[in-house]
Structures are given as C-alpha cells and as structure tokens.
C-alpha cells in the first residue's frame, strides 16, 4: 500500500519490531493491532514498547496517570 504520509509517520513511529511491514502506515498498523485485541506501539512509552506486549492490559498497567 502506498501511503503519502509514510515518511512523516516514520519520524514519530516508535515500533521496534524488526521488519514490520506496517511501520509508518498507521491505518494498517491500527487495523492489524485492533484485530488482535492490541494497541500499536505509539500508545506505549519507548521502554514499554520494547517488551512487544501490545495488550490493552499492559497499556492500562503501565500507563502513567
């Protein structure tokens, strides 16, 4: 899929998963993680994202209020 914003999105994307085919293509990333009951990397701090636990439970548990 061509995304006119891919380069712009890549500057903000904190996904550390090597070879992710959705990196920088936010609409595909959101749809993929939503279908798995997860959230994308950008919802997590860099430290938490590196665990690759994208579960909603992990988001709630690690969220700083």
UniProtKB/TrEMBL annotation:
Q: Identify the domain of life.
A: Bacteria
One Pfam entry for this protein is DUF6485
Q: What is this protein called?
A: Cytosolic protein
Which organism is this protein's natural source?
Pseudothermotoga hypogea DSM 11164 = NBRC 106472
